[in-house]
């Protein structure tokens, strides 16, 4: 007598998988990642017979863009007549009698335990009410017993102490019963959810490719399949390590996210800055009306701040490099800055990226170059001295704009950002502040009108106090800025007689000193400049 083995569950596909088709094992061989999507390439070999053959590829991402699907035969006397993607539901009803029986027994035991707790709690409350009535009756009989000379104070005290003690015990027991009943109710609800989950039908969206291959003769053919999937993107990520203050080790990587439904195992990854688009329409043109307006006799000037861009060096008044923008209120992932030219960066070797939506860091290239380290400060922005390292991009590939992880010999320093850096171009990075250097800035302004020329002179006096709390001398590059006039009605002059030392003043209005701070010493710098406005000029 034989016993049949019962299946542990029922599994089916809606719609059903094709029958009689040849299965093509075509794993993912290469992936090209764009800013917001990925181009996937699969290759595989399958044996076909003469005539028309139906070929199926399983395990394809369900989010494939149908219009991007393309297939071709690389080797063999055959051609692909048609290729399409099919999607369906994989439905599995699990049969777990032992697990369900254990949960049901646990559920029944918890219910009985909760009923017993509620019954004990109700009994404790009834006894508490009876003792409460006994206390009320005993208190009402005390005056009568005292009038007849019956009873003693010690007897009354012993009786009431025993009643109060029992009352407190019953009340505490009822309260503890309430807490226990609530905990049992929560546990019953959790077990009930587990029991209901066993009866739930599992659904999984699956997809497969179907291709019609026309072969002239029987044999093996190699097929290549290309398609585009969303839910995949990449962004540049860099790491810079300053060694000994004289050498920078720079690593450029790519942070990859993908949740397409298919894992990329041991594939060739390529990262592109190309921006694919479905096309745009030119804007509509409207008529512009030109009118003549009388020139105003007053000249209105406006003071504004302008970022001075330097190739590869970021903003000049930054903390040793490109200033890091403030954190946005919402998540906004910027695009990839490629300097106006499409870049294709290939990762060395083969890499794996699972479909879990988590970041994966893929190294792209590394280089080493000498660094010029110096302490710099911009007191108007931040009263601190920062260690800035200037080096050159020694790689053949450009450094794309993105976040940079900063490291020194003693470990992690912080994060900053860099702009696009072309090969052989210099760039700067800030490796954090020097805590030994303290800076304080004071600014005073005054204005007066010249009695003869009627020009308005606004004088600004900036005082900088620098201190070195360490026992070693420090060389600090101090930078302050002056306004720059673009019209002849406004003049800006540096008062070199009252300004400390002889600072360097460039065309952008940046005034710099290279000062020596002795160990445990201090220094005071003065900056005087004047802004003159012609008569009739108003500042807004």
- Which structural category fits the helices and strands? alpha+beta
Low-confidence stretches: 1-10, 314-331
Shape: flat
Number of domains: 4
Q: What radius of gyration results from the CA coordinates?
A: 40 Å
The count of strands amounts to 31
Portion of residues in beta strands equals over 45%
Largest beta-sheet details: 7 strands, mixed
**End-to-end CA span:** 102 Å
Helix share of residues? Answer: 10-25%
Write down the overall mean pLDDT: 84
Number of DSSP helices?
2
How are the elements arranged and paired?
Layout: E1 9-14, E2 22-23, E3 28-33, E4 38-48, E5 51-58, E6 70-75, E7 78-94, H1 97-147, H2 153-198, E8 202-215, E9 219-229, E10 232-243, E11 247-258, E12 264-272, E13 299-301, E14 309-310, E15 314-315, E16 344-346, E17 351-353, E18 360-370, E19 372-378, E20 382-392, E21 402-408, E22 411-418, E23 426-433, E24 437-449, E25 456-468, E26 474-481, E27 490-494, E28 504-505, E29 510-517, E30 522-533, E31 537-539
Parallel strand pairs: 2-5, 3-12, 10-21, 13-31, 19-26
Antiparallel strand pairs: 1-7, 3-4, 4-9, 5-8, 6-9, 7-8, 10-11, 11-18, 12-16, 12-17, 14-15, 19-20, 20-23, 21-22, 24-25, 25-30, 26-29, 27-30, 28-29
Helix pairs in contact: 1-2
């Amino acid at each position: 007598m034989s016993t049949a083995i019962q299946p542990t569950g029922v599994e089916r596909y809606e719609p059903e998988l094709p029958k009689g088709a040849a299965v093509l094992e075509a794993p993912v061989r290469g992936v090209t990642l764009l800013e917001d999507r990925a181009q996937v390439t699969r290759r595989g070999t399958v044996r076909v017979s003469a005539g028309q053959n139906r070929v199926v590829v399983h395990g394809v991402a369900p989010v494939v863009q149908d219009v991007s699907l393309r297939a071709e035969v690389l080797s063999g006397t055959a051609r692909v007549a048609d290729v399409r993607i099919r999607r369906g539901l994989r439905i599995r009803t699990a049969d777990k009698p032992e697990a369900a029986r254990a949960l049901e027994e646990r559920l029944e035991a918890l219910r009985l335990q909760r009923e017993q707790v509620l019954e004990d709690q109700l009994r404790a409350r009834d006894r508490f009410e009876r003792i409460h009535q006994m206390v009320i009756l005993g208190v009402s009989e005390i005056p009568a017993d005292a009038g007849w000379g019956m009873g003693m104070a010690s007897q009354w005290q012993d009786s009431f102490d025993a009643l109060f003690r029992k009352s407190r015990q019953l009340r505490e027991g009822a309260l503890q019963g309430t807490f226990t009943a609530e905990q049992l109710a929560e546990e019953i609800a959790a077990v009930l959810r587990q029991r209901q989950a066993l009866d739930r039908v599992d659904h999984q969206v699956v997809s497969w490719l179907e291709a019609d291959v026309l072969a002239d003769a029987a044999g093996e053919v190699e097929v290549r399949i290309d398609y585009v999937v969303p839910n995949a993107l990449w962004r540049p990520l860099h790491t810079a390590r300053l060694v000994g203050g004289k050498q920078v080790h720079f690593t450029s990587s790519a942070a990859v996210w993908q949740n397409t439904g298919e894992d990329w195992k041991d594939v060739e990854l390529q990262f592109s800055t190309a921006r694919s688009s479905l096309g745009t329409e030119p804007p509509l043109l409207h008529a512009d009306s030109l009118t003549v307006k009388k020139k105003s006799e007053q000249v209105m000037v406006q003071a504004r701040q302008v970022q001075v861009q330097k190739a590869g060096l970021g903003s000049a008044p930054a903390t040793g490099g490109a200033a890091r923008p403030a954190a946005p209120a919402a998540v906004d992932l910027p695009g990839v800055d490629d300097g106006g030219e499409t870049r294709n960066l290939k990762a060395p070797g083969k890499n794996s990226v699972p479909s879990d939506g988590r970041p994966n860091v893929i190294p792209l290239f590394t280089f080493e170059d000498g660094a010029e380290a110096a302490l710099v400060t911009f007191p108007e922005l931040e009263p601190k001295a920062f260690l800035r390292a200037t080096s050159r991009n020694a790689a053949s590939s450009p450094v794309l704009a993105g976040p940079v992880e900063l490291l020194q010999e003693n470990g992690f320093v912080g994060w900053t950002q860099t702009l696009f850096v072309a090969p052989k171009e210099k760039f700067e990075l800030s490796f954090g502040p020097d805590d030994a250097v303290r800076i304080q800035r004071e600014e005073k302004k005054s204005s007066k009108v010249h009695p003869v020329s009627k020009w308005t002179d606004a004088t600004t006096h900036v005082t900088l106090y620098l201190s070195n709390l360490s026992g070693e001398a420090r060389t600090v590059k101090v930078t302050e800025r002056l306004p720059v006039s673009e019209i002849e009605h406004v003049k800006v002059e540096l008062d070199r007689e009252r300004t400390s030392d002889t600072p360097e003043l460039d065309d952008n209005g940046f005034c710099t000193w290279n000062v020596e701070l002795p160990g445990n010493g201090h220094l005071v710098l003065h900056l005087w400049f004047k802004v003159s406005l012609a008569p009739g000029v108003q500042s807004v």
